[in-house]
Amino acid sequence: MSIRPTLETRKATPTMEGAGVHLHRAFGFADPSELDPFLLFDDFRNDVPAHFEKGFPWHPHRGIETITYVLEGTVEHGDSLGNVGTLGAGDVQWMTAGSGILHQEMPHGNTRGQMHGFQLWGNLPSDQKMTAPRYQDVTAKDIPIVQDDDGTIVKVITGSFWGVTGPVDGIAADPQYLDITVPAGVRKTFRIDTYRRAFAYIFQGAGAFADASSPTGVLLEKEVMGEELNIRDLSGDRTLIRFGTGDEVTVQAGPDGVRFLLISGAPIDEPVAWHGPIVMNTQDELMQAMRDLRNGTFIKAAH
Question: Which domains does the chain have, with CATH numbers?
Answer without folding.
Answer: 12-142+281-303 (2.60.120.10), 143-270 (2.60.120.10)
